Amino acid sequence: MLWSDPEEGPPKEMRDAQTMLRRAGIVIALGMVLAMLAVGLL
């Protein structure tokens, strides 16, 4: 392997975990927004 070769990306498991964490963060953020709206309406 030469110094000029591009670095290999992260392994598939790590990419899958990052995608899952990103999705979980979006779901949690949406849930928080909905909870705030629900509390505001009560």
Characterization of the model:
It holds the Pfam family MmpB. InterPro entries: MmpB-like. With 42 residues, this protein is mainly alpha-helical. It has one helix spanning 12-41. The radius of gyration is 19 Å and the shape is rod-shaped. The model has no long low-confidence stretch (mean pLDDT 88).
Concise overview:
Keywords: Membrane, Transmembrane, Transmembrane helix. The chain crosses the membrane at residues 20-41. This protein has 42 residues and is mainly alpha-helical.
SSE order and pairing:
Elements: H1 12-41
List keywords for this structure.
MmpB-like, membrane, 71% helix, 0% strand, transmembrane, mainly alpha
Helicity range of the residues?
A: over 70%
Q: How far do the termini sit from each other?
A: 63 Å
Structural class: mainly alpha
Q: Which oligomerization state do the chains in this entry correspond to?
A: single chain
Largest sheet: none
Order of helices and strands: H
User: Which percent range describes the beta-strand content?
Assistant: under 5%
Radius of gyration: 19 Å
Number of strands: 0
How many helices in DSSP terms? 1
Low-confidence stretches: none
Average pLDDT over all residues: 88
Spatial shape: rod-shaped
InterPro entries: MmpB-like (IPR058070)
Keywords: Membrane, Transmembrane, Transmembrane helix
Pfam family, one: MmpB
